Amino acid sequence: MKKVKLYIARHGKTMFNTIGRAQGWSDTPLTAQGELGIRELGIGLKEAGIVFDAAFSSDSGRTMQTMEIILKECQQEKIPYTRDKRIREWCFGSLDGGYDGELFYGVLPRTKAFENGRDMKDVPYPELAESLVEVDTANWAEPWPVLRKRIYDGFEAIAVQMEEQGGGNAIVVSHGMTINTFAWLVEPNQPRLSLDNGSVTVANYEDGRFILETVGDMSYRQIGRKILEDVENA
């Protein structure tokens, strides 16, 4: 049986990403720049010779749009493709769609988790999740036990499905905070990185556990960008 390897990409840059709005369960499409960035990713993955056996994304429009571009550029549009709401982004509740500055630097810093001058990067995910629950007037934000289980179960289900089908490579498109949370659940000492759109996090799955290979790798996009530039300059 082949080993199970998940290539987990963050979706392309969207309208809300561009104007700095919190985009949890709300959704906006990729911009022209975002589409180009994912073309670079798809071309880079193809150049690396990576063959995927299956594709998975969240059920958000931005991840599905991203997946469509990746599979087209990789010339692997006919592989099985599944959407799974468990690997959606965090839900920001009543603050979803608001400006990042208002959420992350205005409302959340007034919660208990940010007492004594703690910065966003100093607040662990469990406390950050509870801060969102604390300020969400709509009661939509997920408590940490629910959020943690949803995210881990989603990625584990993908890995188990791949294992049951004989292993292989899966391309998975998800979201920045969701991918970072998954990486933190796998390796709690993993530094919290700001994942770029189109970055790739690779996780191997064997004997019922994940092992991170890379987090936030931009090399595939860089390779694809160089190929596109060479074509334009030819």
TrEMBL record:
InterPro entries, alphabetized: His_Pase_superF_clade-1, His_PPase_superfam, PGM_Phosphatase
Gene3D superfamilies, A to Z: Phosphoglycerate mutase-like
GO molecular function term, any single one: phosphatase activity
SMART domains: PGAM
Active site as annotated: H11 (tele-phosphohistidine intermediate), E89 (proton donor/acceptor)
Protein origin, superkingdom: Bacteria
Pfam families given in the database record: His_Phos_1
A cellular component term, taken from the record's GO annotations: cytoplasm
Protein's UniProt name: Phosphoglycerate mutase
Annotated organism of origin: Streptococcus pantholopis
